[in-house]
Amino acid sequence: MSDLPPENPNLSLTSSSSSLHHSYSRKQKSLGLLCTNFLALYNRHGIETIGLDDAASKLGVERRRIYDIVNVLESVGVLTKRAKNQYTWKGFSAIPAALKELQEEGAKDTFHRFYTNENVKVSDDEDDEEESSSQPLSSSQTDTSKPVSLPQSSDPSKIDNRRDKSLGLLTQNFIKLFVCSEARIISLDEAAKLLLGDAHNTSIMRTKVRRLYDIANVLSSMNLIEKTHNLDSRKPAFKWLGYNGEPTFTLSSDLMQAESKKRVFGTDLTNVSVKRSRTHESATERRIKMKQQAIADSSYNQSSDDAHESRGYEFGPFAPAAGGTYPAARLEDNSKRAFDVENLVSEYRPSYQNQVLKDLFAHYMDAWKSWYSEVTQNNPLPDTSKRH
DNA sequence: AAGTCCCGCCATGCA
DNA sequence: TGCATGGCGGGACTT
Question: Locations of Low complexity compositional bias (predicted)?
Answer without folding.
Answer: 133-145
